[in-house]
Amino acid sequence: MAARVAASATLLVSAAYLWLACQLPAGTFTAPGAGFFPLAVGGLLVVVAAVLVAAAFRGWAPDAGSAPAEPEPPAPGAGRRVLVTYAGLAGFCALLPWAGYLVTAWLLVTALLRWLGDGAWWRATLAGLVVAIASHYLFAVLLGVPLPRGVLGP
Fold first, then answer.
1. Which residues are CB-neighbours of 7 under 8 A, at least 6 positions away?
2. Tens digit of each residue's pLDDT (9 = 90 or more) over 88-106
3. How much is the average pLDDT of 60-83?
4. 21, 32, 54, 92 — which has fewest CB within 10 A?
5. Residue 28 and residue 111: Cα distance in Å, rounded?
6. CA geometry: angle at 87 spanning 83 and 91, to 5°?
7. Counting Cβ atoms within 10 Å, is residue 49 exposed (0-12), middle (13-18) or buried (19+)?
8. Under DSSP, is residue 78 helix (H, G, I), strand (E, B) or coil?
9. Can you tell me the distance from the alpha carbon of 9 to that of 2, in angstroms, rounded to the nearest whole number?
10. pTM of the model
11. Where does residue 134 rank: exposed (0-12), middle (13-18), buried (19+ CB within 10 A)?
12. So where are the chain's domains?
């Protein structure tokens, strides 16, 4: 019963997300608008949620003959990792208009790699820089998505 409720709730939330995404201008594949990516994500969410609903109501299970496995307890420090990630994403949203995409993406990736990984600062900083530049090039240059420039822009 819990699987049916969870799957149905997921489908409802996914459908609401898709409906809201439809309110944004989608543009075209060659010139995507603000709603292009949210529309694609919403469509995918609805399809996956519909499969979950079908599986829950038909009683599909990976192996109906075996007993369900006991869930593993969360790893030590898992809650801290989630909170650090949330704080990083909130900081990203807060800094983005002022610092711009390049600086903010670099800071986010560097901080997450350093605090959630076990590497050295210089490796996290270098990886953050590479990810920020590559993602900026992909979205701003190749796809033409306007990204916030912050203090570095005109």
1. 49, 52, 53, 55, 56, 57
2. 899 999 998 899 999 999 9
3. 72
4. 54
5. 35
6. 170
7. buried
8. helix
9. 11
10. 0.55
11. exposed
12. 2-58, 90-152
